[in-house]
Amino acid sequence: MRDISVKALAKINLGLDVVRRREDGYHEVKMVMQTIHLFDRLEIARNDSGAITISTNLPFLPVNENNLVYKAAKLLIDEFGIADGIDVKLRKHIPVAAGMAGGSTDAAAVLYGMNRIFELGLTREELMRRGVKLGADVPYCVMRGTVLAEGIGEKLTPLPPMVKCPVLIAKPAVSVSTKFVYENLKLDDTTRHPDIDRLVEGIKENDLHKIAENMGNVLETVTIPNYPVIAEIKEHMMEYGAVLSMMSGSGPTVFGLFDSRKTAETAYEAMQKSGLAKQVYLTDIYNTARRYSEAHESSQKNTDS
Fold first, then answer.
1. H helix or E strand, kind and range, residue 130
2. How far apart (Å, rounded) are the C-alpha atoms in residues 159 and 95?
3. Average pLDDT of span 146-162
4. Average pLDDT value over all residues in the chain
């Protein structure tokens, strides 16, 4: 095999709780991560030069060793003594620095693609073990689906598939530092924590409204006061019929879950016109465990304004 085309799927957090800050500075979390059918496309091709080259549709992205795509490729090249290099054409749709694991899922896609191209014979679990060296979200992006993450995010437990429903994504024109959010997170007796256990029960019962009742993101207590537009987007989605809207990860992306495609399409059009978000997508839950190489067709709508 000389080349492969891979979809790198985004994630949202259906629930995100921070349990405590550890003495080593890391935070212990308990969260439910969910793959959605919004994706970047990577065209990966073997070359004879031994170099790792990256090209992308976004001129501000690094195309050197500062990109997780490069780091993922180099990790396998170094470990297996691969003489050839790879050329990666990365077309990004997942919002950058948005709490949706965009960089991590691209890295996971490279691990998968190189495993196929160079016939390394690595299992999914072996790819996940290598992925953790690149970032906490990379093993999940190899696994995908509906997953409970604990510890510092490295303890992954697959859950039953999430209810299939439309998902509206909106990212405002602000950037949020994950480091800033965690450094300013206050955990005390007044902190309202989402009930992740009841959220998991709702997923197991395949009940979208029970899921929505127990969703929550403790990091909103930091991000929203500093970026009020996040709250405005949440409110806008609810006004247009979302079962629930919430910030994903440390933000600033907001997503809304809908129980009707028609309602979701109306909300999508309204969000485009509102001017609240720079990037708006309408997609859906991706909840299968199929291989990356299988075809994943999407009715994804998008706009970059």
1. helix 124-131
2. 26
3. 91
4. 91
CA 282 to chain centre: 15
Largest Cα separation within the chain, whole Å, is: 59
Closest CA to 145 of 254, 292, 46, 299: 292
Q: 111-122: per-residue pLDDT in tens?
A: 999 999 999 999
Return the sign of the alpha-carbon dihedral for residues 289, 294, 300, 305.
positive
CA 14/CA 165 separation, integer angstroms: 13
What is the spatial distance between Cα 109 and Cα 117, in angstroms, rounded to a whole number?
Answer: 12
- 235 by Cβ neighbours in 10 Å (0-12 / 13-18 / 19+) ranks as middle
Query: From the centroid of its chain, how far is CA 211?
Result: 19
Q: Which residues pair with 5 in a beta bridge?
A: 43
Confidence category of residue 138, pLDDT binned at 50, 70, 90: very high
| pLDDT interval class at 288 (50, 70, 90) | low
Helix-helix angle 68-80:102-117, to 10 degrees: 30
Q: Classify each residue of 3-30 as buried b or exposed e, where b means 16 or more C-beta atoms within 10 Å of its C-beta.
A: ebebbbbbbbbbbbbbbeeeeeeeeebb
101 near 248, Cβ under 8 Å? no
> What residues are labeled active site?
11, 137
> Which pTM was predicted?
0.89
In three-state secondary structure terms, 203 is helix
Cβ-in-10-Å burial (0-12, 13-18, 19+) of 190 comes to: exposed
CA distance 60 to 56: 9
Q: Are 56 and 92 in contact (CB under 8 A)?
A: yes
